[in-house]
Amino acid sequence: MAQAPATPKWHRAALSLAARAGRDDIADRLTPVPSEAAALALRHALRTRVPAMRRQVIFLIPLVGPEQVGDWRAVNIRLRATLQCMIAQDDPHWQAIVCCQERPALPDDRRIHFLPFDDPTPGNDKWRKLAALYGQLDRLDTGPSYVMSFDADDLMRQGMVREMLRRQAPGGYLVQQGLVMDDATGVIALADAPTLREPMRKPFWKLCGSCAAVAHDPDLPQSAGFLQAMTQHEHRMFPYLAALAGHRLAPLSFPAVLYVLNHGENFGARRGRVSFKTKFVERFRIDDPEELARIAQGFPLPEELPEDLAAMEPAQGQAGQNPDAQPV
């Protein structure tokens, strides 16, 4: 399963207008792709639905397999940092599912689940793992929630879960402001919407896939189906598809996610798509020491590796199945 291509901008604009006008006949003539058809189906289902209180956030994490990386230990260390940012959140109402061929070194936390992945199809499996993860939503006791795909090497800033659950945005949230760090240099940049003074700045959701938390109602079968179809596209399609589904995304009020480049195992590096982001970091770098200190305080990571990670051998990754791995 390859990543679904983006639809042309003119097509998106026309389909959005038809949906807002209630012109199903025009929408049908525009031949929606599967994700758009799923969005329109959810939009219809939501017309008579009263928005429910969202009581938790679900993070779905596709993890690259050991055979596809050079250093499985390094991948585990970065995943642990990602999960530690979740554990440290001041609102504990979240769950996370990690999907991979081999069970990584997960912290002992009942909110963190592991989903084994055994599809032997060669090639990039990120979107097949995302499809498998979204297929698990009906097996979780979530109630109405926000669901967010989250990369295994990104970091979540303190307060993100709390803001989502306190604000109760009907459609969900978009990370418009975010941070991008070049791991090779330690430089951090702010991603945000362009302005007249900085027309070349980009919003975070155009740079990183950990950018959209969408409202999910497990009592609507169209909800999980839409989320699964939406995440088969690149993240630049997320705001459009969510709005088409009737879930307009509200920007979070602060830079909520940190995207780390050039750490050696980036997914984008394997596709040759990191260089322009490196240039972005240099152009919009943050040099104010006080601001950098505030950023560091927002990502509470341990100074030393936990014992289970410190004991791992920093060797080449090798595939294998964990006999104790259980699906959620």
Would you give an account of this structure?
By secondary structure, the chain is of the alpha/beta class. It has a single domain, classed as Spore Coat Polysaccharide Biosynthesis Protein SpsA, Chain A (Alpha-Beta Complex), CATH 3.90.550. Helices cover 33% and strands 15% of the residues. The strands form two sheets. It has a seven-stranded mixed β-sheet with strand order 3-2-1-4-9-6-10. Strand 1 (57-62), helix 4 and strand 2 (94-100) form a beta-alpha-beta unit. Helix 5 runs antiparallel to helix 7 (221-230). The longest helix is centred in the N-terminal third of the chain and has 16 residues, at 72-87. The radius of gyration is 20 Å and the shape is globular. The two termini are 23 Å apart. Mean pLDDT is 90; it is low at 317-328.
